[in-house]
Amino acid sequence: MWIGGLITGIGSQLTIVAVGLHIYELTASTLAVSLVAAFALVPMILAGLYGGALADSFDRRKVALLAAVVAWGSVLALASVSWLDVTQLWPLYALITVNTVASTMVHVARQAIVPRLIRRELLPAAGALGGMAGGIMLTVGPALAGVLVAYAGVSWTYTIDAVLFLAAFYGLYTLPGTLPEGEKRKPNLRTIVDGIRFLKHAPNIRASFLIDIFAMTFGNPRVLLPAVGALLIGGGAVTVGILTSAVAVGVLLISVFSGRLGGIRRQGIAMAIAVVAYGASILLFGGVLLVTALVPHDVGPDIADASLPALLAASVLLALSGAADNVSMIFRNTMLQAAVPDEMRGRLQGIFTVVVTGGPRVGDLYVGVLSLTALLWFPPLLGGLVIVVAAAVILRVTRSLREYDALDPQP
């Protein structure tokens, strides 16, 4: 499952970067790029909630396999649209929405399977291993996407993703069947509502979700990167690939050296501190963009024309943000998988997936709207400050989160 997810993840990053660059090439609008997230938001939320109900009702392996077939078909369709030189935006928005919906359901089912494969004390290590895979795919994928789009074009980039996606079927097919524990349930609205109601009596899980909503909504500057590469730092698509990969480098490095994280018992406090560090990194990234905007300099579409000091500083800060986000993810996932009972795990994982994937999409819209001011530095500067304050306040008012003990996990 890990190998298949890793290879497929690298391919998925090709498409994520390529779609943004494709739309920006057609429109020269950051807002148009951010609309990818806006159109996919509601379907993705529904997919996460319903996918969680499916994962608590049927064999989780089969749910993941069927959703993967749909996701693969959407990538094939994106490649076809590009090869046919279709210039309308709606097919791109529609197909990436389908891809997002299906990928969300795959992720929900996969994550609900993990605690059934390993012992509870190994969950932090599994989270670190997942972070390592994420670091690799986010390092290799966006950098490769930047080079492929610049020198081969978006059509070949989509096509390569379609080929790499075949690894997902290997990774999922080799899993054992994983039926949820407890009585069999029908995946309906009542089942979904029961999962949401569970959060009412789960203050630690609820607080972790809330902290992550702030972090993912206000701390994701990805839709700014095409404009940053074109107008501010320079370097075009290659700069976009470098900055996107910088986040992944931080994720990968902290995952490799994360062994001691498994011995931390106060995981709620550790998670909140990591989110504060994440917000501070995003705030400083906005500061770098502000300084770059104030200092006169020439930029061009080639990497040789980029402002190297600004590119280096921005890359280091984004790497630090990736490292901090990954540490918070390890503790957040561990708390979710250890404290939530198996019969409820799919639905809670679905809600969590909505938070993790929906937050950045709301954040994309937030960044896109603020970018209309032409102040590219403003969204990350403000967003980083909001994250730091929100995480500190939530930790302060949630006593049970401060007292959370990994040896006695309570939701």
UniProtKB/TrEMBL annotation:
Q: Does the keyword DNA-binding apply?
A: no
Q: Cellular component per GO?
A: plasma membrane
Any one GO MF term held by the record is: transmembrane transporter activity
Keywords, alphabetical? Cell membrane, Membrane, Transmembrane, Transmembrane helix, Transport
Q: Which InterPro entries match?
A: MFS_dom (IPR020846), MFS_trans_sf (IPR036259), TM_effector (IPR010290)
Places the protein is found = Cell inner membrane
Residue ranges annotated as transmembrane are 5-24, 30-51, 63-84, 90-110, 122-150, 156-175, 207-225, 231-257, 269-295, 307-327, 348-369, 375-395
The topology of this chain with respect to the membrane is: Multi-pass membrane protein
Where the record annotates domain Major facilitator superfamily (MFS) profile, the positions are: 160-411
The answer to whether keyword Ligase applies is no
What SUPFAM superfamilies has UniProt attached to this entry? Answer: MFS general substrate transporter (SSF103473)
Q: Name one Pfam family in it.
A: MFS_3
Q: What is its main location?
A: membrane
UniProt cross-references to PANTHER family, sorted A to Z: ENTEROBACTIN EXPORTER ENTS, INTEGRAL MEMBRANE EFFLUX PROTEIN-RELATED
| Name of this protein | MFS transporter
